[in-house]
């Protein structure tokens, strides 16, 4: 009697006895439209991920290769883009939901291992200048190396007593600090910060802040909203506007900074596991942080492959906690001088 594959032992499916693979699903047998509807990405993109991650997903140290890298990647993409382990998705590729969960873990770690290759600031002067030129072309704001903001991603409560992940809305979340370029390509992504922390505190404690304070990215600045403190390397909006130059500065700042808000919307609409529409991420904070970072890596890879960052429709999303913006202006006199020089030189 035929045994439905969904009721087979999950460990046997994932690890096997030997080195066979389960090839119940073949990419060449389905259309691109089907792949995009089920897994969020077209065939050539998936083939690229198989080449990129195949060695990690077939490591000799694993007990077996019973589920092929191709199938593991499809399972993970299905979860990232849908936010759930759907029975029909597992049936389509021939594995159980429990095995899908293991596949997601494998692919997530493989992507996280490669995060620094895909998410980073450029290192050569020509590429840094292109960053500035691209931003200047948006709204005339000079010297911009990136736009920065934080986004909260809902997670399950680690335990009843731990309030460190509870944000201002009373929800458990991770506060993720990100920087992107004018195209929406992520240049920095720190996805592990406690939801209770203010955006300004996250930045103050971040590796990104240490890099800029150490002068690793000179001759330019980031643009951040009023949830951050003004720094010599971080230009924020003016709160009180008195002159035409100040109005022009704020208008250019807002139009340029809007890029990261659009990027956040796109990431959430493409990776529905992050948008809260299917509930919170049902993992520990560490694993949730890795899933978020894996989605960030995929976001950048999709841009490199010409998948339009702004093409995805907006979806429902977790309401973002509002920050308190009081008196973020006068803490750094040198930074205030830099901003005044910017006003005089480019907006007067």
TrEMBL record:
It holds the Pfam family DDE_Tnp_4. Residues 148-300 form the DDE Tnp4 domain. It comes from the Eukaryota. One of its GO terms (cellular component) is cytosol. The keyword Iron-sulfur does not apply. GO terms for molecular function: hydrolase activity; metal ion binding; nuclease activity. Keywords: Cytoplasm, Hydrolase, Metal-binding, Nuclease, Nucleus. Its main location: cytoplasm. It is found in: Cytoplasm; Nucleus. Its cofactor is a divalent metal cation. Signal peptide: none annotated. Belongs to the HARBI1 family. Transposase-derived protein that may have nuclease activity. Does not have transposase activity. This is Putative nuclease HARBI1. It comes from Sphenodon punctatus.
């Amino acid at each position: 009697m035929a045994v439905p594959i969904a009721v087979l032992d999950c460990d046997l499916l994932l690890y096997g006895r030997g080195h066979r693979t389960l090839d119940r699903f073949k990419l060449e047998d389905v259309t691109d439209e089907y792949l995009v509807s089920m897994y969020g990405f077209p065939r050539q993109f998936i083939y690229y991920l198989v080449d990129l991650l195949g060695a990690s997903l077939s490591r000799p140290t694993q007990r077996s290769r019973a589920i092929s890298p191709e199938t593991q990647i499809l399972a993970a993409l299905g979860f990232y883009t849908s936010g759930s382990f759907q029975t029909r998705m597992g049936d389509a590729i021939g594995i159980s939901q429990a095995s899908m969960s293991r596949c997601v873990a494998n692919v997530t770690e493989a992507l996280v291992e490669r995060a620094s290759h895909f998410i980073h600031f450029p290192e050569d002067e020509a590429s840094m200048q292109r960053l500035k030129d691209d931003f200047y072309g948006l709204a005339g704001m000079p010297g911009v190396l990136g736009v920065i903001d934080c986004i909260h991603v809902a997670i399950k409560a680690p335990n009843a007593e731990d309030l460190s992940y509870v944000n201002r809305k009373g929800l458990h979340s991770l506060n993720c600090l990100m920087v992107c370029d004018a195209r929406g390509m992520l240049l920095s992504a720190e996805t592990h910060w406690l939801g209770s922390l203010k955006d300004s505190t996250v930045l103050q404690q971040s590796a990104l802040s240490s890099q800029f304070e150490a002068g690793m990215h000179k001759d330019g600045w980031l643009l951040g909203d009023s949830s951050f403190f003004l720094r010599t390397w971080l230009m924020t909006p003016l709160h009180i506007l008195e002159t035409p130059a100040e109005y022009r500065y704020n208008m250019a700042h807002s139009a340029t900074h809007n890029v990261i808000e659009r990027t956040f919307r796109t990431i959430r609409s493409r990776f529905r596991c992050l948008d809260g529409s299917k509930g919170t991420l049902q993992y520990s904070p560490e694993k949730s942080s890795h899933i978020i970072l894996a989605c960030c890596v995929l976001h950048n890879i999709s841009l490199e492959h010409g998948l339009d960052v702004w093409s995805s429709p907006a979806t429902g999303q977790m309401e973002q906690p509002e920050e308190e913006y009081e008196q973020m202006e006068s803490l750094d006199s040198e930074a205030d001088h830099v901003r005044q020089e910017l006003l005089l030189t480019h907006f007067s």
